[in-house]
TrEMBL record:
Residues noted as binding Mg(2+) in the record, renumbered to the chain: D486, D492
Keyword match Metal-binding: yes
HAMAP family: PNPase
Pfam families tied to this protein: KH_1, PNPase, RNase_PH, RNase_PH_C, S1
GO molecular function: 3'-5'-RNA exonuclease activity; magnesium ion binding; polyribonucleotide nucleotidyltransferase activity; RNA binding; transcription coregulator activity
Name listed for the protein in its UniProt record: Polyribonucleotide nucleotidyltransferase
UniProt keyword annotation of Magnesium present: yes
Family: Belongs to the polyribonucleotide nucleotidyltransferase family.
Length: 696
């Protein structure tokens, strides 16, 4: 039997149907928000997966192009691999949901969201976030939810809840906040240098709206919720753990992890594991638990050191940033490059400039965004962490980190009218020990300025961590977390921005949410660290963009023509424009508005191409002098090509002051000449007078 539930959310109706479709899933919610329709399901395997020590959660966000009335491109005419937007949505759904499942749950769980209809004013991504929370909450899968999610925009200084498509275009903020009944559990934001106090106000406004949604979901669970099933708990044998601690000793474990060198720490842990494997060689059951037991022992040790002893594994103060280094112009032939290093995290970013025609075209369900001019890509090779594995292309993590850096830098990029380039930055992670995404933001900002991209202001990023105790007031915030503190801590709170304000936020946590006090302190801490990085490390290297693009970057000049003249510049079957390209070696892009971009490393050739295009589209003026080439000779005169689509004739009587018996006595085919326009008759014929021959 189908049950329907509805509420008004930001002036639009959110309706949830339970029992109408997908009845065999553990939980299913048929979501309607305006005309956006998403089927959200939650399913779990009957038994735990063998041989793993993590919770196997998969989140899928499936974009179907029929949802926006499109047929997929390509030969197969069906959807292929997930788009970048789909992958980013997978991640934003995953982050608030994952912490609410039991930590020792080993059953496979899939949260699937099928986007079936899209109303541009009602976000399918938000609808899927709510749908996943509802489907899981009503299912029999163990889950300490529900969660609720809200988007906030900032239009003309006013907050807008779940902004429409038009509002998003002019909004200075794109914020998504997920909450539990009491706390904020996920924050994701892109912003146009929004001040910290405004961002905080927006976060807590979203949290208030989330409480209304949670009350709505509670009503659905009360009517449709299933009893949560029992599951096989996965824990280390207490007797084995006690024996391990007595054998290794807490003091020895603390000494093993208390170092600022990641490789030394890892070697120490391997040595401990080898001792335990030797000790339990005759006890197969305990031997199988060594890895997880050592993990738990490390985690307990690190958290105690930080929270109770106020000691970080590398000896830093809680507010201290690791040693920093920045440089530019690392690579000789690229358009721009920079290196940024924070402790054992090292990132090199390379900038490449191209024509606007090289902007990335997007084929997805977002009808408002068809291309993007700025692309940031992030690569995390195995050697950066001292491991070996084959490269299989970017995974979800790499795509997510690249998108975060891209979001942080977009607000400071120059307008296309000011800087008519497509821009690609690629961050290569050379070494990793925590917060590479924020390192890539710093390196990319430096690289952009080094390449001559006139960004509005430098952007820096920093991450703070968290270790919590038994109560909400028992916690410690750590500035610039390294890998171990991220691994065993409770939070990775990434904030990027300029001196003026925040441009991006991404918050990952492993606990059931953050209090208002923690959020305020975390944002204040990132502001302090970000300011230090900008002024003490980045600005001394390069504080503003160079006033010219790099030696090997293409130069671009723009020229605007009447759109009706575009066909004349292109010519029949592209003959005219290809002729200009062959003659000058430039690259030419023309858009439908009549904007012409001419690219070349040689400015003289750009100027020549513009001159040719001008000669095509601009009318000739009687009395003016033009240069051309003799292309045909007749007994009565010579024909001169003034432009690819304009020929004029010099009558034999106009070749010289004195009498000319034969045209070839004065000019020949291929001669360059300067001519004056004497007349353009009613039929458009151009009569010329020879002024002089131009010597090569």
């Amino acid at each position: 039997m189908t049950k329907q539930f509805s509420m008004e959310l930001a002036g639009r109706t959110l309706m949830v149907e339970i029992g109408r479709v997908a009845a065999q899933a553990n939980g299913a919610a048929f979501m309607h928000y305006g005309d956006t329709v998403v089927l959200s399901t939650a399913t779990a395997s009957e038994k735990p997966r063998e041989g793993i020590d993590f919770f196997p959660l998969s989140v899928e966000y499936e974009e179907k192009l029929y949802a926006v009335g499109k047929i997929p491109g390509g030969y197969l005419k069906r959807e292929g691999k997930p788009s970048e937007n789909a992958i980013l949505t997978d991640r934003v759904i995953d982050r608030p949901m994952r912490p609410l499942f039991p930590k020792d749950y080993r059953n496979d769980v899939t949260l699937d969201n099928l986007v079936m209809s899209v109303d541009p004013d009602c976000s399918p991504e938000l609808t899927a976030m709510l749908g996943s929370a509802i489907a899981t909450a009503i299912s029999d899968i163990p889950f300490d939810g529900p969660t609720a999610s809200t988007m906030v925009g900032l239009v003309d200084g006013e907050f807008v809840i779940n902004p429409t498509a038009e509002q998003k275009k002019v909004s200075d903020l794109a914020l998504t906040v997920a909450s539990t009944r009491e706390k904020v559990i996920m924050i994701e934001a892109g912003a146009n240098e929004v001040p910290e106090d405004v961002m905080l106000e927006a976060i807590f406004k979203a949290h208030e709206v989330n409480q209304e949604i949670i009350r709505f979901i509670d009503g659905i669970v009360a009517e449709c919720g299933k009893e949560k099933h029992e599951y096989e708990h996965h824990t280390v044998d207490p007797e084995m753990y006690e024996d391990m601690v007595s054998f290794i000793t807490p003091e020895a474990m603390e000494e093993a992890v208390f170092t600022d060198d990641k490789q030394t720490r890892e070697a120490n842990i391997r040595e401990i594991e080898e001792k335990l494997e030797e000790r339990y060689a005759e006890n197969e059951e305990w031997l199988d638990q060594v890895s997880e037991a050592v993990y738990n022992f490390q985690k307990k040790t690190v958290r105690k050191m930080i929270l109770k002893d106020k000691k970080r594994p590398d000896g830093r103060d809680v507010k201290q940033i690791r040693p920093l280094h920045a440089e530019i112009d690392c690579l000789p032939r690229v358009h721009g490059s920079a290196m940024f290093q924070r402790g054992q995290t090292q990132v090199m970013t390379v900038t490449t400039l191209g024509s606007l025609s090289e902007a990335q075209r997007l084929d997805g369900i977002d009808v408002n965004e068809t291309e993007k001019r700025y692309m940031h890509h992030y690569n995390f090779p195995s050697y950066s962490v001292g491991e070996t594995r084959p490269s299989r292309g970017p995974g979800r993590r790499e795509i997510g980190h690249g998108a975060l850096a891209e979001r942080a830098l977009v607000p400071v990029l120059p307008a296309v009218e000011e800087f008519p380039y497509a821009i690609r930055t690629v961050s290569e992670i050379m070494e990793s020990n925590g917060s590479t995404s924020q390192g890539s933001i710093c390196a990319s900002s430096l690289s952009l300025m080094a390449s001559g991209v006139p960004i509005k202001a430098p952007v820096a990023g920093i991450s703070v961590g968290l270790v919590t105790g038994e109560t909400d007031d028992d916690y410690i915030i750590l500035t610039d977390i390294q890998g171990l503190e991220d691994f065993f801590g409770d939070m990775d709170f990434k904030v990027a921005g300029t001196d003026k304000g925040i441009t991006a936020i991404q918050m990952d946590i492993k606990i059931h949410g953050l209090t208002e006090q923690i959020i305020r302190e975390a944002i204040a801490r990132t502001k302090e660290a970000r300011t230090y990085i900008l002024h003490e490390v980045m600005n001394p290297v390069i504080g503003q963009a160079r006033d010219h693009v790099g030696k090997y970057a293409p130069k671009i000049s723009q020229y605007t023509i009447d759109p009706e003249k575009i066909s004349e510049v292109i010519g029949k079957q592209g003959k005219t424009i290809n002729g200009i390209i062959d003659e000058t070696g430039v690259k030419i892009d023309i858009d439908e508005s009549g904007r012409v971009d001419i690219l070349s490393e040689d400015q003289a050739m750009i100027d020549k191409a513009i001159s040719i295009i001008k000669s095509i589209v601009e009318p000739l003026n009687v009395g003016d002098i033009y240069e051309g080439e003799v292309v045909r000779i007749m007994p009565f005169g010579a024909f001169v090509q003034l432009s690819p689509n304009k020929d004029g004739m010099i009558h034999i009587s106009k070749l010289a002051k004195e009498r000319v018996n034969k045209v070839e006595d004065v000019v020949n085919i291929g001669d360059k000449v300067a001519v004056k326009v004497l007349e353009i008759d009613k039929m458009g014929r151009i009569n010329l007078k020879l002024e002089e021959k131009i010597e090569d």
